[in-house]
Design goal:
single chain, disordered N terminus, 186 residues, seven-stranded antiparallel β-sheet, 5 helices
Length: 186
Amino acid sequence: MERLRPWMLLAVLFGAAAHASGASANDFLDSLSRIVTREARKQLASKKLPFKVGPLAGHIQAVEPERTLAVEVKQFELANDLAGVCLSGAGRFQLTGKVNDSVDVVGLFDARVTIAAEAMFTKEGNEFFVTPRITDVELGVTILEVLPAELAGSEEFLTSLVVAVCNKNKTAIVDELNKHMRKQRL
């Protein structure tokens, strides 16, 4: 989370500068979207994100994030000590793993996510802190390819299955994401 701090501070500065210069809210959100997209691409380049869900374990990696990954800041509000943001992102990813530690599985998929989050700013003594929290997540997946060959042709079925599982476990997904959000000193 330490790397997110600069763009949060830039967002506040851009917001103040945009307001002072009379720039439109769309200009501000476009600028913020470019910053967040650049940071997301840097964060996901060449990273393998491990996962384990039921009998499936492995990693997910962004595929050509410079070309396929984009984030759009839909809304940004700052009132008193609370900043709110809603962003949508999309990208292409590859899943590589094993089922029951024996069957190799490889999948290529497009993912879409919309996240609503807030950050509470506080002062303790002479220091300032920010505590981020995700309030809502909407996930979408389109499976493009899947191996082994026995699963080929079932991309549409697997897509609907993944979306149903994500929707059913939405609260647990948000709770898990928030476990990684920590109060940070500014």
